[in-house]
Amino acid sequence: MPSGRPAVLVTGVSGDLGLRLLPHLSAYEVIGVDLRPPQTSLPVRFVSMNLEREECCHELMVLMRESRVQVVVHLAFVMDPVRTGIVDPGRMWQINVAGIARVMETIAEVNREENLVRKFIFPSSVLVYGPSVSLAAEDAAFHPENLPAATHQVEAEKVVRHRAPGLRGCSAYVLRPHVFAGASACNGLIETFRGMPSGSGERAEKLRNKGKKLSFPLPPGRKYLENRLQFTHLDDVARVINFIAGRTEPEPQKITVLNVAGWGDPLTYQQCLEKAGLKPLSLPGRWAAQLALRRAWDRGTSAVHPGVLDYLLHDWLVNIERLRKFLGPDFEKVMRYSAADAFADSLNASASAAAG
């Protein structure tokens, strides 16, 4: 039964971002949907649900109506098939693309009788811009390359654009955060900077048990070490979502797209490697770097998809001026981490692991 507080439905609640979001939603009744329960002591009503199945539309509709859900935060997306264990491309598509269509279809149906759900929030990522666009603004073209998660995000965003006008009084928000960072962040790129064998194979487990660090594979040449990138602290993304959830809007917005990245100067790969205490593995050329990533992926040593290499060979930056204007005087209160600070906090996890 409704608690009297406004209700927020969070799909994918058990993932990294979902767990960091929960502490910020204390003003709401939180209904969490995922395949497995979230590892948290915070109050959340958990409902096990598989968004791959068409039947979930009816389950979601009943849940939204009986809980009087006003905000839907859609985090259910397979970014890391190694960690989730969902490696089949067909299953990934069903969750990543068909799943978001089912959630939005349900919102439209729920709002058919009354204007119940007011906001739909979906974090996509900067991967949609592709690897060769520097300081991309939100209206930049999509050019994802060789990375299943990126192509799925593009398809998911197309679903949002197609369905947002039919949400019947519900505003739609698409966030495009840069690489998630922070002590609790677990993704292939951050774990590579930590020097961790991030794969699920036996060799990766042996290397982790021995405390072995891996080198960072790059083609030779100073230019690659001077490429720059940004990071986004998970807690900042959670605060942006909470800000949107509580924001008063005079009228529904069909769709609002916002890049999200840590403020301040970006970091070069050289700076990242120095801060992490890693050495670049200088290989004969791009083909060799690609082969090294492919072998590590195939052997289960690394969770970094070989397609990521294309993104490492260029500046990888986005413009966050629209976010600054959107948050206005609350920008510094919401976005508390610079790109450098977010990356530095990521290394705290590896330091803690080494100490343990």
Kindly list the characteristics that best describe this protein.
356 residues, alpha/beta, 7-stranded parallel sheet, two-stranded parallel sheet, 15 helices, 13 strands, 15% strand, globular, disordered C terminus
Estimated structural class: alpha/beta
How many DSSP helices? 15
How many strand segments? Answer: 13
Order of helices and strands: EHEEHEHHEHEEHHEHEEHEEHEHHHHH
Mean pLDDT: 88
Query: How would you sum up the global shape?
Result: globular
Helix content percent band: 40-55%
- What fraction of the residues are assigned to beta strands by DSSP? 15-25%
End-to-end span in angstroms?
44 Å
Rg of Cα set: 20 Å
Structure description:
The longest helix is centred in the first third of the chain and has 25 residues, at 89-113. This protein has helices at residues 16-21, 56-67, 81-84, 89-113, 148-163, 188-193, 202-209, 222-225, 234-246, 269-276, 286-298, 309-312, 321-327, 331-334, 339-355, and strands spanning 7-11, 29-34, 45-48, 69-74, 119-123, 171-177, 179-181, 216-218, 228-229, 231-233, 256-260, 267-268, 280-282. The protein is globular, with a radius of gyration of 20 Å. The strands form four sheets. It has a seven-stranded parallel β-sheet with strand order 3-2-1-4-5-6-11, sandwiched between helices. A two-stranded parallel ribbon has the order 7-10. By secondary structure, it is an alpha/beta fold. The N and C termini lie far apart (44 Å). Helix 2 crosses helix 4 (89-113) and helix 4 (89-113) packs parallel to helix 5. Strand 5 (119-123), helix 5 (148-163) and strand 6 form a beta-alpha-beta unit.
